[in-house]
Amino acid sequence: MTESTQTRHWVVAGGGTGGHVTPALALAEQIRKRGDEVLLMGTDRGLETRLVPEAGFELLALPAQPVYGRSLLAQMQTVPATGRACWSAWRAMGAFGADFAISVGGYASMPAVIAAALRQIPIAIVEPNAIPGRANRMAARMAKLIFVQFEQATAIFAEASAADRVRNTGVPLREKLVAMFEGAQARRVARPPFRLLVAGGSQGARQINNAMIEAAPQLEATRFEIFHQAGDTDRERTEAAYRAAGLTAEVVGFEPDMPRRYRWADLALCRAGALTVAELALAGLPALLVPYPFAADNHQTANAAALVSAGAARMLDENPLSGTRIVEALHDIFELPEQIAAMSNGAAKLARPDAAARIVDACVQRMEG
């Protein structure tokens, strides 16, 4: 099939968190590489208000508000804002001449999905979690194509009679991140001092921080080096605990260059968000995963279980998460160097560096077909 030279106009919708904004930007990069036009739609309060303009893309910030997990009264109060967001998205799509809309999930995506459906614009959704989010489960009824990272999500969409529209492509990742690991050499042989990367997300995780503070006196100073993204609130007390234990540790509130830390580390101790899981796979980095227990539909536990099944990770839950349990898990993992190598290989097998390109290609084929 000869590729069309006509400029297409795409809308990519979703936002609020890095787990939504990053895939949206990765798709936008691929669309722009084709010479097409792209408009991103997100919230007026999420990370996209900063990250999208910084990446050189246009953002329509919608007055969308979360609905699920709130009281009935609070949900009713979101109705006027949701209506305004749908109207703004509908008008913008008309003015932009949108040909195709992609939802990356989250409450910010629903006004765009509704507007696209009303304008009869083809819709695709990207679902990065093992258990699909509620917004994407609703959007699946209107979607022509559904892209997932986990087979469990495929099964859930199949229950909604959408199996024929599902493609397992992985999560779109930014070009810069993919390029950093393209053709990367094999990881170093893990040996003391073992390099441990601790991160609970961009803002840190209080439970993980507390457990590591408790674990610090139990970790041999000669066996471990630690890099810990603790968040601004816990940075000083976490750093003080490592210093008192005589450990070699660097503690920061926020780390803007996580790929460099992925390359440095032998093991990550972290949450199990969909984006984190995709990045660990790309980096071939073994992990000790602590799923956030209050994530919607407990999807982080399902994400972590997928990596455990692939031999790429171990999982700890938070009930309770103690320093002693972390120390025991670390000693068990590092007892045999070949375990780390096997986990690294298991993670690398899950990597999908071409996810963004595959998704855009499939959408183009849908438009041309």
Q: How would you classify the helix and strand content by structural class? A: alpha/beta
CATH class of the largest domain: Alpha Beta
Report how far the terminal alpha carbons are from each other: 10 Å
The spatial strand order of the largest sheet comes to: 3-2-1-4-5-6-7
Task: Point out poorly predicted stretches.
Answer: none
- CATH superfamily assignment of the largest domain? Glycogen Phosphorylase B
Number of strands: 13
Question: Can you offer a commentary on this structure?
Answer:
The structure is a single chain. This protein has helices spanning 18-33, 48-54, 72-77, 79-96, 110-118, 134-139, 151-159, 175-181, 206-215, 235-244, 258-264, 274-283, 299-309, 323-334, 337-348, 355-368; strands at 9-13, 37-43, 58-62, 100-103, 123-127, 145-148, 166-168, 194-199, 224-229, 248-252, 267-270, 287-289, 313-315. It is of the alpha/beta class and 369 residues long. It has two domains: 9-174 and 353-368, Rossmann fold, CATH 3.40.50.2000; 183-348, 3-Layer(aba) Sandwich (Rossmann fold), CATH 3.40.50.2000. The strands form two sheets. It has a seven-stranded parallel β-sheet with strand order 3-2-1-4-5-6-7, sandwiched between helices. Strands 10-9-8-11-12-13 form a six-stranded parallel β-sheet, with helices on both faces. Strand 11, helix 12 (274-283) and strand 12 form a beta-alpha-beta unit. Helix 1 packs across helix 16. The radius of gyration is 21 Å and the shape is elongated. The N and C termini lie close together (10 Å). The mean pLDDT is 89.
